[in-house]
Amino acid sequence: QVQLVESGGGLVKPGGSLRLSCVASGSISSINAMGWYRQSPGKEREFVAAISWSGSTYYTDSLKGRFTISRDNAKNTVYLQMNSLKPEDTAVYYCAAARDPTGPWGSWGQGTQVTVSS
């Protein structure tokens, strides 16, 4: 089983930046990809980005150019750099892990709140 712990969320003004981190522990050898999803109140959870252990990256089209996913394999950590944040980016951001970057995502973190507001 894989345990995921996110950090880095908070309150930021529109146009600001945040970097989320997700540390994986447990059966690391069982996963080949980690990713980020987000969920806003009243909306379904949506895919944000994913990265394989080899470095291939995947993004939802609407966030390309503002969000960047990266990883540090030695630290079993994945990051999500979020720039030019907008109020509509406000959501709980969840880290996920899978055997394949296209899913299914079998392990989830507890989520970290990101609020973009002036």
Question: Count of helices?
Answer: 0
Please state the structural category: mainly beta
Portion of residues in beta strands equals over 45%
Q: Give the overall form.
A: globular
Note the gap between the termini. 40 Å
Q: In sequence order, what are the helices and strands, one letter per element?
A: EEEEEEEEEEE
Radius of gyration: 13 Å
What's the story with the biggest beta sheet? 7 strands, mixed
Helix content: under 10%
Low-confidence stretches: none
Mean pLDDT: 94
Number of strands: 11
Provide a descriptive summary of the structure in words.
The chain is an all-beta fold and 118 residues long. It contains no helices and eleven strands. It has strands spanning 2-7, 10-12, 18-26, 33-39, 46-52, 57-59, 67-72, 77-82, 91-98, 105-108, 112-116. Strands 2, 4, 5, 6, 9, 10 and 11 form a seven-stranded mixed beta sheet that branches. It has a four-stranded antiparallel beta sheet with strand order 1-3-8-7, with no helix packed on it. The radius of gyration is 13 Å and the shape is globular. The model has no long low-confidence stretch (mean pLDDT 94).
